[in-house]
What does this fold into?
Amino acid sequence: MSIVDLEAKIPNNVGLRDNKRLLLALEKWQPAFLQWWKDLGPSDFNMHDVYLRTAVGVGKGGWAHFDYVKMPDYRWGIFLADGPEDRKIHFGDHIGAPVWSEVPGEHRNRLRRLIVTQGDTEPASVEQQRKLGHIAPSLYDMRSLFQVNVEEGRHLWAMVYLLHTHFGADGRDEADAMLQRHSGDPDSPRILEAFNEPIETWLDFFCFTTFTDRDGKYQLASLAESGFDPLARSTQFMLTEEAYHMQTGENGIGRILHRTAQLVREGKDPRMVGAMPFEVVQRYINFWASRSMDLFGGEDSTNASESFASGLKGRYREGDGIYKDPRAMDATYRISVPDGDKLVDKDIPLRRAMNAVLLDAYVADCTRIVSRWNRDLEALGVEFRVRFPDKRFHRNQGVYAHYKFAPDGQLIGEGEWTRRHTDWLPTQADRDYVKSCMKACYEPGKFANYIAPPAMGVNERPIDFKYVQFH
Ligand SMILES: [Fe+2]
Ligand SMILES: [Fe+2]
It folds into this structure.
């Protein structure tokens, strides 16, 4: 079990105290991070006390501590999950070889790109969400937002630690650049498209945490299989925190649907009382689900094949032995690709389909969440059911980009798309309406009219607990 140093300026279990050069480099980066937090984080709420969870260790139980904290004083620490001493690479070409504790020269560029791309998403989402505190539907939800924000900050620390420790001067430059690119900045945007989309309402936020953070889960999980041990252990621990972000999203959308269902049952028109019509929620889901599926990259990808072959990025739960061949050598993956006005099946080598395989695991997960929402709608006696859009719908990346598909996956022509896309994706009128519902509700235990209260509070506190204390 690693030793956790909680007294240090940067709490950690990576022995920072004994690595003076690294410590100095990170201590130099820290003020830039704090400045970034103040400029582009949830800056207007920095003086308030927020009831937050802080990671204090990596043990299975009791890894977190809850207390009131002012966000700039949050202890952003660096934690690697504990793992067996003699871990072996368990997929790809180097199977059976000991894992790397240092970056192998031949994989250096690829690994750096993987870490930078992952790292860039963490501060990006904080930037996207920075104004939401002003329109929080409750103190409970405001706390959730800030919990997600500080943990994304910690995930940035986790990636910056890897860059500083293992990539020398280039790594330090990359760490600086993480604070220089900004979400939606026309000159210096964040790397991935979904992380440049504005998040202006809580409906966007809950869709983002459900679908985009969930892409994060699958990316982190595939990196947690990595033969580069520090990356595997770092992302493994990030997954623990990420679970809460996805729960925030799933519960948030669930509570919005629940509230609408209640109103419909009472014979009320949601639009008359500042709540979310079902079809608007569905269009937001279609938008964020498709943007998030783009994050998986091309379904047929030599890049993905090489990351797998080199042992850098595995499949979801690769280590659990659920796949027949850990080398993925001879198998193929069948994919339907557009050819004129129809779809034709094509078999590609499995290794080249690693992004598609990961996307399939994601879609299965999303489908389970949608069924949970639908079970609640059924129990409430309303007819509406949420549908998860097909992976071909509204894609900007991969084999389906540049073609038009309906949400059920049917290939359609431009004409039909032009006629019908406003049924499927949020319109300006939807966005204006959703924005008009965004009224702050700061009274403990009270909720904006478009969202039902949660089933329970945080850390066994009651729902009307003062999750944020204003000063
Ligand atoms: Fe994260
Ligand atoms: Fe997250």
